[in-house]
TrEMBL record:
Belongs to the tRNA(Ile)-lysidine synthase family. ATP binds at S21, G22, G23, L24, D25, S26. The gene is tilS. The keyword Lipoprotein does not apply. The keyword Zinc-finger does not apply. SUPFAM superfamilies: Adenine nucleotide alpha hydrolases-like (SSF52402), MesJ substrate recognition domain-like (SSF82829), PheT/TilS domain (SSF56037). Ligates lysine onto the cytidine present at position 34 of the AUA codon-specific tRNA(Ile) that contains the anticodon CAU, in an ATP-dependent manner. Cytidine is converted to lysidine, thus changing the amino acid specificity of the tRNA from methionine to isoleucine. One of its GO terms (molecular function) is tRNA(Ile)-lysidine synthase activity. The lineage of its organism: Bacteria, Pseudomonadati, Pseudomonadota, Gammaproteobacteria, Enterobacterales. It comes from Candidatus Tachikawaea gelatinosa. This is tRNA(Ile)-lysidine synthase. It is found in: Cytoplasm. The N-terminal region contains the highly conserved SGGXDS motif, predicted to be a P-loop motif involved in ATP binding. Keywords: ATP-binding, Cytoplasm, Ligase, Nucleotide-binding, tRNA processing. It catalyses: cytidine(34) in tRNA(Ile2) + L-lysine + ATP = lysidine(34) in tRNA(Ile2) + AMP + diphosphate + H(+).
Amino acid sequence: MFINYLNKFLKPYSSFVISLSGGLDSMVLLHQLIKLKKIFRPEISLRVLHIHHNLSIQANDFVQHCIVICKKWKLNYKIIYINVPNKRNIEAIARDMRYTALLKELQAHENLVTAHNLNDKCETFFLSLKRGSGPSGLSSIQKKIVFKNGIILRPFLNFSRDQLETYAKLYKINWIEDKSNKNIYFERNFIRHKIIPLLTNRWPFFLKAISRSASLCQQQEILLNQLLSHKLSGLIQKNGSLYYIPFMKMTIIECKFLIRRWIYIKTGIIPSYNNILHIYQEIIHSKNNANPELKIKNFVIRRYRDFIWLLPYYSSLKHIILPWDNLKKPLILPQNLGIISINNEIQQTFIRQPKKHETVSIRFQANGYFLFENKSKKCKLKKIWNEKKIPPWERSRIPMLYYNDELISIINFINTKKSIIKTENLSFKIQWKKNIINS
């Protein structure tokens, strides 16, 4: 029953990496993949990844079990260790970290295969229902998900946990039961042990019905994407920002869908209902002189002029002071911002060298009024940023050259009159070479 479906489902692919936990589901999947290779497709490649979460007292037992199995079947395997922070939403954090680690390990043309089954799909449906999710969330676990660096395949979503256990017992497959799976403190376990048995005892077909509803939600989501994809592509700029002015003439339903889809395309994250509502009400419709923002995981949503931007989140640099004691050596900037170096070949204005009593440093903040080159009056740095149309979030990430506590240069942009040279041979040019990721 399993092998024929597996052969058909995996036919377009030939290179597989299985996420092996050592539990029932993944052990059955491994048995099936080995069987598939022996009987139908000897040309396929197969290797094993195991994630050690360091969460369970059984974690090392799972590792040893997987190693024994891999050695028995002469399979290439790797154990990946991750440290999950002990926070309230530890299940979600562990899941995200697990997938990040697994996808990172995929090589070219490899496909990740996981053993999620029908019960997992239904449990996820209930968890999404509890969160008040829409059709996207209620679509639950998908059989195939395409990421930038690989594809996740889930061939067991049509089969229940009972079916997998029957198969395992028939073929005398050994697996380890995770004792924490019985702890109903965890939401998924509560649904698994308390909710679903109650429903399936009353309606034996209930799991299949949930799966069908999830599939219908997915179909609706696909159709919405198809219908609105052209409109969204017309709003997304080459730099990835979203032109939001047309939102003023759209319905709130349409706006919220376009926002959610844009975020998903950019990050793979499905934002919550409250996140989308915040973006619509507090970012798009905030006052013109406001600088609203919203942090979503490792990203931040910001608005500037007629566009909203989705950017990587970085901690503030405003208190950072980087000494530059040896000007002959390039200075590496934090947060992958690039390097500062002396380069007299570039098209920049010469600035004076520091005097003996002046210490040189790089900073990312300047308060007060300054007299800049080509300016007759002192002004705040904000005026320069506005003239050069520098978005607010970039301003605090632009390196500034200081001699003692005097601002000398906003590197690559403009110098203050404190930089004026008196002797030609006591001057140089400074270059900020950005890393590509930040340019």
